[in-house]
Design brief:
With 467 residues, the chain is an alpha/beta fold. It is built from 20 helices and 14 strands. It is elongated, with a radius of gyration of 26 Å.
Length: 467
């Protein structure tokens, strides 16, 4: 194309010239020459008159090449030239999000929805952003708009070895098992089917898949969805991993009862109470109270008197609450230890150890980053969890795994002062990822992938079984 502006061009070009340059850049990109395409767009972006599409595509290709700063600058210029260019708004929002500018990203996605109020990409991005910004109800509203348009979302692996159809429930991040972190996106195709209504499900054409996985976690909001997942599995006539009815047994009340029947398992009885019933509840010992369906310690508090309970109710929203006796599980050195392990196809793997001076232990608010001795202890746990757990506690965990009968489930637990397993929670939707600082937590990159490989083996075994 002799009349397409090339590197070093200095004359003024017409809009037709720039549009031809844009098309040539897209052709180069389609042929795999990303750097050639970007060089052409760099040259075209310096010409007059400026064209918004040139800058938008420049941003897109720069992002593909990992040049995030050039991508942001290009998208910013594109929306300046044409505020109604949807692709540029979406791209600019994505780049701001990647840079950690959540408010800026939200602003761009809002403007994108002003251009196209049903845009699926923008609604899904707002679902993520509003949760991070603490606006759960707004996040779910955006998800609802997205799911009204589409219920099946597929991520196709370029080197496909296995295909999963995951049944999911509408909800926040805690509603479903975060399979995106568990599978190798290069080799594992993930189809996520959100169960919204039987009518919409019956109209869907499902893709081919090797394993059916129930990703829906336990919560009061998900009971109906779990029952629907059970029905869908029967309609499909395929075995389902993480049987929905067994997932229901991980409810804090029911799971504590199951665990309490296991020798050497300390599982304090959990009670569920309405707000009205708690108005007359007598508190006679230290107790943990938390809203039903709360996660990551949100709303959880240790109380010691009935007066403290009433004060808590005055400050905390919600209509139903869990009450669990508080157990002092501090180790002899005064620190509290919370172990997270994951069972995949009944095999137990250690995932992390959080050590804290606070009884309410959360990994990323603990002192793990600051203290080398804590990381040394976590490394030893990941290398051989059975050498850390007393034999009785390890056996109790194995028996709990068998009792729950789930294909994939995580556990938060500790060791009590008698050397027994102290059970906090069993959760099939527990998050397992490998995004920690690679230098600081190098040992995780040795051991956590064992969980990922075990999950792949689980899927591959399911594929090998006759339907």
């Amino acid at each position: 194309m002799h009349d397409v502006p090339g590197s070093g061009a200095t004359r003024t070009f017409s809009l037709d010239d720039l549009r031809r340059a844009n098309q040539e850049a897209l052709r180069l990109r389609a042929g795999g020459d990303l750097r050639g395409a970007l060089a052409l767009l760099d040259t075209a972006s310096e010409q007059s008159p400026p064209l918004a599409e040139i800058f938008s595509n420049r941003g897109f290709i720069a992002a593909e090449l990992g040049d995030r700063e050039r991508a942001r600058e290009s998208y910013a210029r594109a929306v300046e030239l044409d505020p109604h260019l949807l692709a540029a708004r979406l791209g600019y929002g994505a780049e701001l999000y990647a840079a950690g500018d959540l408010e800026g990203a939200r602003s761009q996605y809002r403007l994108a929805l002003g251009i196209d109020e049903e845009n699926l990409v923008a609604h899904l991005a707002m679902y993520e952003l509003e949760q991070q910004l603490g606006n759960r109800s707004k996040a779910l509203a955006h998800q609802k708009r997205a799911l009204a348009a589409q219920q099946l979302f597929s991520s196709i692996a370029p080197k496909e070895r296995r295909r999963i159809l995951a049944l999911c429930a509408p909800g926040d991040w805690f509603a479903n098992t975060p399979l995106e972190y568990l599978v190798d996106r290069e080799t594992t195709t993930l189809h996520k089917l959100f169960l919204t209504s039987p009518e919409k499900l019956s109209a869907l054409s499902l893709p081919e898949y090797d394993a059916l996985f129930n990703a829906i976690g336990e919560s009061s909001e998900n009971v109906e969805m779990l029952l629907l997942a059970e029905l869908v599995a029967k309609m499909l006539g395929r075995p389902i991993l993480n049987d929905p009815l067994r997932v229901l047994e991980t409810n804090r009340v029911r799971c504590a009862r199951i665990a309490a029947r296991i020798a050497d398992c300390n599982a304090p009885e959990t009670l569920e109470r309405s707000r009205e019933a708690l108005q007359s509840e007598e508190i006679e010992r230290p107790t943990i109270v938390r809203p039903v369906d709360s996660h990551a310690g949100k709303g959880a508090r240790r109380i010691e008197t009935s007066a403290e309970l009433q004060s808590y109710l005055g400050e905390t929203p919600g209509e139903r609450f869990f009450l669990t006796p508080w157990v002092d599980y501090a180790s002899p050195d005064g620190f509290f230890r919370k172990y997270r392990l994951v069972a995949v196809d009944r095999e137990i793997f250690p995932y992390h150890l959080a050590i804290s001076s606070n009884w309410m232990v959360h990994y990323y608010s603990s002192e793990m980053k600051a203290e080398q001795w804590m990381r040394d202890e976590e490394r030893a746990f990941l290398e051989d969890w059975r050498a850390v757990f007393p034999a009785a506690a390890a056996t109790a965990l194995e028996r709990l795994v068998d009792s729950l009968g789930l294909d994939y489930v995580g556990f938060d637990c500790s060791i009590d002062r008698e050397g027994r397993l102290l059970m906090f929670e069993a959760d099939p939707a527990i998050i397992v990822h490998l995004t920690d600082d690679r230098e600081l937590f190098a040992y995780k990159y040795q051991h956590v992938p064992k969980i990922f490989r075990a999950f792949e083996r689980l899927i591959d075994r399911q594929h090998a079984r006759p339907a």
